[in-house]
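Lab meeting notes turned into a lecture example. A postdoc, R.K., suggested we walk through two folding results consecutively so the class can see how the record format repeats. The first protein's sequence and structure tokens come next.
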Amino acid sequence: MVVSTSAQLFVKPLGYTPETTEGTTPTSSPYFSPVGAVTALNYKKDNSLIEIGQIGSEDVIDYVTGLTVREASVTFGLTGSSFLKRAVNAANYGTPTGTISQTFSLVYSIYLNAVENFVFLKGCRPKSCSINMEIGKVTECSMDMVCTSITKPATSSGLTTPTFASLASGDVWDWLDGGADPVSVNSVAQSCIKFSCTIERNTSMDYTLGNTAGFGSQPHARRIRGEFTTLWTADTEETLFDASTEHTIAVVLKSATSTLTLTGCEISMISRDHSADEGGATVTTYAYTAEAASLT
């Protein structure tokens, strides 16, 4: 058998579990739910070392440890909406379960030299997320997160009777799952060929004197923007643009299962190109901003 010195495939796929105490993974019988059909995962650990020099020498005399930064990002195809809701829906400090107000732990395992090793990302909160729908493609999401800590690979999970996530199976949501004309503006169906939405949560880590690790994180401002591209068959949206009229955009991610609703929307820009050698129909792209978002 050839023993590889580098990790190749996940043994246990990426899963998440809510935390009761921020930055602490529940150890007694935790249940890890699947994130989705993960196509990319990356994270970084940075001690932000600060060089200290002195007059009379060209070399540094010492280093000061700065703010420890632990961040991660994951790209995945949707197999459900529970994980995505944590980045989309409004914060709820009184009832945090299932919202950005509740932190979560991520875990996966890989083989290092033929031995299973576990990696935990703890105290996670979304920093931003994006949703992209396009004809002929899977509905793809990406999420950037801050973390209070990211562990070194370890041969033991340290958990008692955990239930780990299973690989995604069955239906991965794609451009057909929302049904015909899944995008609507003020309840009027749009002939969309592409839709995107980015939700910035502007989550930042708080620090205290004497501790390099973050004390905790909180979202500080939700900002929502995106674009949708339609076949140019009507000018209703241009009327909304001219009048600066607020409207509601609804996007069905999966029929009878999950809908993204954006309220207080305004169209901020209209882009339309005409080309003599264009093989397809004339399309119009609308950029929008929104005051609020909810995902069911």
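The second example is placed directly after the first for contrast:
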Amino acid sequence: MQHRFRHLPGASLAYVGIGSNLAHPRRHVARAVAEMARLPRTRVVAVSPNYLSAPLGATAPQPDYVNAVAALVTSLAAPALLKRMRTIEYRHGRPPAKQRVRNAARTLDLDLLLFGRRRSRQRQLTLPHPRMHQRAFVLRPLLDIAPAAVIPGRGAARRWLRGLHGQRIARTRRHTRL
């Protein structure tokens, strides 16, 4: 995939996890991809199929999630991309971080999973995403668009997926109308 973004100066390949389980989840996922495609100095170069997955760590019953992963080529810095992703979440009705309940149902969740081969631990951003290797709903769609994906500091994503057979995940359809 790297050959597709040589024409973006200083570009990095980023992978974004997308999830929704409220208010027409497939529609939120599709619209989020379209909105990321409109970000400055950014191109969406691949999007996985959608998957249905059971909520993890939920303290109350909630609907299944629709999840996908998008590959972006961007010359935005990782913190700037994350800030734009948060703006997209807010437009979809996600409350600000201070008002969120961890693992609660949501209209849209965008997670910056990988940003090139960068590893960093900052207050607002940890790369790679610190729990991505524990989530089938991240790894399965990631491997659909990047079969040789490597999680910096952890190794091949495929190896981690093998240990997550207990997590329910099934391919589902896309929302075709935005």
